[in-house]
Amino acid sequence: MTMTDADPAQTDPTQPHAARSAVAATDDRREALPPTPRRLALTRAYGHGGLLIGSTIILLLILTAIFAPLLAPHDPFAQSLSARMLPPVWSEGGNAEYLLGTDQNGRDYLSRLIYGARISLMIGLGAASIGMLIGVTLGVTAGYFGGWIDHAVSFLLTAQLALPGLLLAMALVFIIGPSVWVVICIVGVLHWTYYLVVTRAATQRIRSLDFVAAAQAAGSTPGQVIRHEILPNLVSSIIVIFTFELGIAILAESSLSFLGVGIQPPMPSWGLMIAEGKQSMFYRPWLVVLPGLCLFALVIGANLLGDGLRDVTSPDGRN
Amino acid sequence: MPMLEIDNLSVTLDLPAGPLHAVRDVSLSLDRGESLGIVGESGSGKSMSALALMRLLPRRARMGAGAIRFDDVDLGGLDDATFAGDYLGPKLGMIFQEPMTSLNPVYRIGRQLTEASVRGGKLTASAARRRAIELLDRVGIPEPEARMAQYPHQLSGGQRQRVMIAMALMMEPDLLIADEPTTALDVTVQAQIMELLEDLRREMGMGMILITHDLAVVARNVDRVAVMYGGEVVEAGDAARVLHMPRHPYTRALLGAIPRTDGPARKLEAIPGTVPSLYARPEACVFGPRCPQARPECQESVPPVRGDSNHWRRCVLAAAELRATQHAPEAIERARADVEEIALEAKGVTRVFRSRKGPFGPPHEIRAVDDVNLDVKRGEILALVGESGSGKSTLARMLLGLDAPTTGEILLDGTRVSDMAPMDRAGRVQPIFQDPYSSLNPRRTLAEIIARPLALRGEGDARSRRRKACEMMELVRLPDRLLHSYPSQLSGGQRQRVAIARALVTDPRMLVCDEPTSALDVSVQAQILNLLVQLQRDLGLTCLLITHDMAVVHQVATRVAVMLNGRLIEAGPADEVLTNPATDYTKRLLAAAPRFERDDAQTRDLAV
User: Fold this and answer.
1) Is omega for the bond preceding A266 within 30 degrees of 0, making it cis?
2) Of A16, A252, B439, B488, which cross-links B433 as Cys (Cβ 3.0–4.6 Å)?
């Protein structure tokens, strides 16, 4: 074989190996192209029970929140002092007009739960997203660049962990003044530590892998490396933390509301309803149990959805 | 009567895709004091066989029917407690592959050495300590008494493997199983460890099972050999006879795939295809699909066992039917630098790493590369040789522009690498890395990975980039159907081809290959080396090849540069350096390289 022999396919015919592999290769090439990864992911999604249940729950809750005015049988703010503390329809003394009973002020509990879905979903999704934005940005930056940036971020983390979160939140709300958006922002700003810890460690690990070096050698800027090479590998852990933080954020809101610095009455939120119902929990358990069940459904749904998304989007179809 | 007899051992792994028959009907026997080498590529079932013997199989593995007898006691009939108490340690000892992870990092060496014998009531604490010190001394650890109080991280890889050997010998086992004991170590250390094992075996009259993928290691150190492929023993017998007169096409092909340090460089006999994963019990020859001499009957039934107990194989071919070699070894014309144009030049390059423990800790300096002067001529393959820690990978990172030298400068095509725009640099030089399992983003499909450098440069649209990716896959002989696969669905050799395709997609003029084949099986290494040489010749690439393997150097390199402790200690034309090394270190490297000199004349006589 001479040095000028340019075509790799024209290998020496005296080599049975090369000739055979060339034949095998052409046979392979003739096969129909397999389904694209997106199609495969969709196929997997249809067969994934947890994902289906989770997305159904979340979808129902979101629809409820959007169409609350159409679904609610009563005005959630309308008080009726003659119909205070009515039990749900299936208990003794229940009333078909108020299917899930009424609260201390005689407001329809079902309507308040339906409207409460709006606030609770907003707070859960909003706060978990803000936390994600802060935590992932800091974590990836610290993990990727290391050095003094890493030291600074680690210091920030230590400081955040050392502060009593609830107290800080109370102080902030007290200074800024309570509103739904303020609560969302403050809960979000106080819940980024998990994202940071996980993404920082993962970024440090991924950064040392050869495919990052290959991307750098191909001329990627740090931003391109982070977006294209590192973030896709963090998605599954971020999803898991997000679904976990969703529940935490809603509970944090309920603590704030219980202390009077969260959602202000008469706005209904599940957290606030639990807080309000707590006083008479032993005599009228439904006041706590019903919003509790809603919260439970939301968190379970989010977790199932998150786990399902992780399974479906991972390259080999499982974790 | 043999000390160990394994009859029809089978191991099945329950995987999501179905039961995988990792080991099928393996029968082996070993006499007292005898050594047996089990050779095979990854996936051949060699480690599973040993783990089954030690009852260390992974949880989802099932051991099939078959009997393991040790000194005529059926081990299968013993309960776990009896087996652990009476056999593991005093009768069977094992050494694992990874010295970095097989010692517990939180316990002192002394405790780990003595624990088993003291717990088992075999020795008193003081007797165990005395024996441990004695053994550490015997395995060549300096100041053994002081070492007893040290932790594993204070020892080097080679020393840890010595400690592992000492630990296995604490209970004076009758049979020592060594699973790739030297694979993770440097070449010079490898040779020392193998020598030590051999000496100890003779001294203590132990039996030994040496599991390895490296035929050269086996050729030097064992009495008998069993060659495994696809979960079966395909050929077995006296080491000298199997290795010098191989009668199974697989053994022959495997021997042909090993790069050699003697004679003229020739094209390696790559075995086409990959090692199969057997989900169904095969009703035919396991090697049939890759065999150059396959016949129709190979597909129809399991081939018969031929030969006598001193040397047998599972093949339909009679000795006379085997072709001497598949083809006359084709001499490869090694690349010559036609022009004296310098493609890459390192001038007085030094790299010092400074680190601190925490923000206010004391500074700590490591001189990874120390005043290196090196030039690579256009169109040549320059091999950079050295052991781990010699600074060769740090140098490569600087040549790629991924790291900047502390002092000195690197010129690429006459321009300083540090002054170049990243895109300009990327168009001139591209890397290929050692570990094909970490060099591809697991979250991206092959099409995305290969076309990514084009996307970064903003070349063409999605469609033309996709087409270019297909072309590159054809160039490195990857089938189109893998276009949308993720790296996890590929074998190591296939992944390395993807890495090569990605490196070549922007038509760079130079490649920096950092140990491109050291993580691959021999037959796959041959495929990749042949591919690299062919690409280099066809595309006129300049190539800097970093390796520790002198045989690979001999195989492909035009010139060699040797590094030790961050310094360049020798450089020159490959033939000269290999035949007439100037420094002691290069001599040591050459002497330590496991070599396998095949007696070609003998092989030819046999075939006639």
Assistant:
1) yes
2) B439
